[in-house]
Design goal:
100 residues; Alpha-Beta Plaits; Large ribosomal subunit protein uL23; structural constituent of ribosome; alpha+beta; ribonucleoprotein
Length: 100
């Protein structure tokens, strides 16, 4: 796969209460990814950027919220998130900016 493309697949880690719970319970890390990204691209991007081994990748499309302002209706853009399961013994630590 093209290395430039892999650098653009991962947009940001998804840091939330639910993401922290999933990370502790299922040993998964959640990322916000490009809307046209595929599972093999996500796996390759995580392995390239964080130097870890990925076991599985699950993706979910998140629909944008409908917002109203002064009677007019608008819609936020939808996005895609990826649940990345790491192999046993692997870990990504975002606080220190890399792997441990």
């Amino acid at each position: 796969m093209n290395q430039e493309r892999l650098m653009q697949v991962l947009l940001a880690p998804q840091i939330s209460e639910k993401a922290t719970y999933v990370a502790d319970k299922n040993e998964q890390v959640i990322f916000r990814v490009a809307s046209d990204a595929t599972k093999p691209e996500i796996k390759a991007a995580v392995e390239l950027l964080f130097k870890v081994q990925v076991e599985t990748v699950q993706v979910a499309n998140v629909k944008g919220k409908v917002k109203r302002f002064k009677g007019s209706v608008g819609r936020r853009k939808g996005w895609k998130k990826a649940f990345v399961s790491l192999k046993p013994g692997q870990e990504i630590n975002f606080v220190e900016g890399g792997t441990v």
